[in-house]
Amino acid sequence: MRRPVDHGAMAVSGYTVPWHAAAGTPVALHVSSSRQVRDVRIVRLDTPSAEFMDWHVGPTGDAASHRDFDQGSFLKIAASELAKCAEISGVAFEVYLTRNDGVRVLFESGALRLQLQDGKLTFLHHGEALQTGDTIPANTWLVVEISSDDSGTVLRISSDDLLAPFRLHRQFNLPWQPPSDGVFFGASAANDVRSLNAKFSAIALQTTTGRVAWTFPTLLPSGPIASTGGDGVLLLEAVNQPAFCMTSRRWDGSSFDPRLVPSHYDALHCHDDDMGSLQWPASYHLHVPAEAAAGVYAFEVGHDGGSERIVFFITSSIRRSPLLFLVPTATYLAYADEFLPAHLYEWMCEDRGHRFAIDNNLKSLYDYHSDLSGVSICSYRKPKATLRDDYNYPLCGCPHNLPVDLHLLRFCHSNGIAFDLITDRDLHERGLAGLQGYRAVVTGSHPEYMSIEMEHALRQFAATGGSIAYLGGNGFAGKVAFQGDLMELRRSPLEAARTWDGPIAEQSLSITNQPGGHLRASGRGEFSLTGVAISLMGFDGARPFTRTPQSHEPSAAWLFDGVADETFGNEGIVLGGAAGYEVDATDPHLGTSPDTIVIARATGFPDSFVHDATRWYEGGASECASRRCAEMTLRHLPSGGLIFCASSVAWCGALPTGSAMNDVGRITMNLLTHLAAAKSRPARRSSS
Locate the N,N-dimethylformamidase beta subunit-like C-terminal domain: which residues (predicted)? Predict the structure, then answer.
């Protein structure tokens, strides 16, 4: 259904296209506003204080206004496509209903409509109910056929559920009218009721010259889906981004890999709260100056009641520094517009971005659809109302993600640490070439999500002499895939304790058909790359770190130059300390390399910090209790580089502000200045 943006929580919302750009290239602002826009200007956010740029932002001629958007996905065969084929004598499809309350449309074409009212079926013709009252079962595959015979119009619905078979056969004294005005599955032509929560498969038209059928691909299509059979090709449109690569009526449990049995995964799942890429017109445009410095920027949209900032990134196209900061846009997008329903989570603070998401029924990749299936795909072409420099996360009552990363970058600027900048999406596309020439890659507080291509590039970089300064926690964990402006995430049982859990059979990514879930499950990711992975998560007080005896050995002692105390990190903007929110620890059983040394450890976490559900301890409960810790690590690589793990989402938040200095700042300064000055070994030439 189409709905106007609810601006009760935020008067202005929008997005940029592209989300990240190089100097000398254009960026467009697509914005919705319930107030008269007063001015639009560019502000740089990663400097010690916000810097307003004198860059020209021009109107496009399509002024900012109160926009609307569609929610709910469905399938459509347009009238123009139907006109291409011979006379149609019947329609058939397979459907798997999930949770649907109120009025929903199962099928509509011209005057005919199959409608559900709280699960009961009504057959309508020109709005008049011809048959009503049959309860249609959910959570089982149904075959639906609507066709003509000598007596009029016939409706057949059947299931092949062995335990609860269902058969419905109704004949109507109604002349058959071949579809000509468009055929809709899961919605009405007027799109005036909520769309259907259901999986669809095997849509077909019976014509006088043969059968026209659609097989849904396991790989996410970039446009309409072409038919097979009949006199020519007809196109079916999947509207508003339903989920592809879903198990169909043919799935029998013999394989979980759609690449092996594509016919078992030829279904898609429509939801009444799906939202594809928004197509708002651009209201303002910016041509980024060729001399622009790489960094984190925003369009600041001013109005008579205040202003909002819509963030974008300018990336480095020329190497100017030996250090490269990796912007975790995949993590930012996964969390963007998180719903945080009140019956599940206690809010520690208010945030207008989350209120905006709730008011507009927006969903993050941490949320679930109204039928309780997980949200697995989203676009950056949408408001990201929680991606702000003044954002506070309601679960912990403090900054999270972008503002914490900005805290790190501002620290670098204040202390003369130069860096270039690349987004993880750039890294996905460019691979190792995007890292070559740099001595070290520096992460922010929470680089949780990565594609296989990103992780492989980082692994190659470290293997050929580069260093990784992992300044966060719970990083390099979840696998994502990209296509255009879309990002996809399929969660696995490893994540069931923290968020929604997808069916085991539906964890393959529709963008690549590779298994989703954790990178770890594919032999990559946290432990094998960095040596650590999440051990605890909690939203109460953070803890300080204490040095280990190994930290005093020459290989690690340089990190602590100027640090007088054995214990450090008693303050910070994230839960009040250096080790908190999500923290990491080693585990040789899960892949920590023997040459990884633990140089500091944080203990004494409150009971509210929960163990990561994926960990198993040979010693049982006593060993589990002894492993309630965060472990800062250092690993010197044979290639000459090193990997440092702060092992805490709160680490960057414990850095000092402005001209102040503390022990967390000294350690970070020692690390980054060492990496900037280090000379990595030259890469060995391949023998192939």
Answer: 264-656
Residue that wins the pLDDT comparison between 56 and 179:
56
CB burial class (10 A; 0-12, 13-18, 19+) of residue 193? middle
Strands 567-568 and 596-602: unpaired
**Cα(266)–Cα(43) distance, integer angstroms:** 47
Same domain, 187 and 324: no
Model confidence at 503, in pLDDT bands (50, 70, 90)? Answer: confident
- Whichever domain contains 59, its CATH number is 2.60.40
For residue range 157-210, list pLDDT tens digits in order. Answer: 999 888 889 999 999 988 888 888 899 999 999 999 999 999 999 999 999 889
pLDDT in tens, 458-494: 999 999 999 999 999 999 999 999 999 999 999 976 5
- The CATH number for 217's domain is 2.60.120
In a domain, 36, yes or no: yes
Average pLDDT across the chain, whole number: 94
Question: What Å distances lie between residue 375 and 62, 364, 450, 483, 487, CA to CA?
Answer: 32, 7, 17, 16, 11
CB 113 within 8 A of CB 76: no
Burial 87-96 (b: 16+ CB within 10 A, else e): ebebbbbbbb
Structural domain of 290: 2-69+279-312
Distance, CA of 28 to CA of 265 (rounded, Å) = 38
Our measurement of the distance from residue 543's CA atom to the centroid of its chain's CA atoms, rounded to an integer in Å, reads 30
Same domain, 532 and 642: yes
**SS3 of 486, please?**
strand
- Enumerate the β-bridge partners of residue 379: 486
Q: 439 with 534, same domain?
A: yes
| Residue 495: predicted pLDDT | 54
Alpha-helix runs per DSSP H in 596-654: 621-626
Checking if the pLDDT of 304 tops 50, the result is yes
Q: How many residues does the chain have?
A: 688
Give which of 377, 387, 410, 522 is closest to 73, Cα–Cα.
377
How far is residue 523's CA from residue 508's CA, in Å, rounded to a whole number? 16
Residues 175 and 48 in one domain: no
Structure confidence at residue 393 (pLDDT): 96
User: What is the mean predicted confidence (pLDDT) over 132-143?
Assistant: 93
Q: Are residues 102 and 60 in the same domain?
A: no
* DSSP state letter for 217: -
- pLDDT (0 to 100) of residue 498: 60
C-alpha distances (whole Å) from 508 to each of 246, 260, 489, 498 are 9, 12, 9, 20
In a domain, 480, yes or no: yes
* Whether the predicted pLDDT of 681 surpasses 50: no
pLDDT band at 151 (very low <50, low <70, confident <90, very high): confident
Say if residue 127 is in the same domain as residue 253. yes
Number of domains in the chain: 3
- Full-prediction pTM beyond 0.70? yes
Residue 18 lies in a domain: yes
Closest among 29, 17, 39, 33 to 67, alpha carbons compared = 33
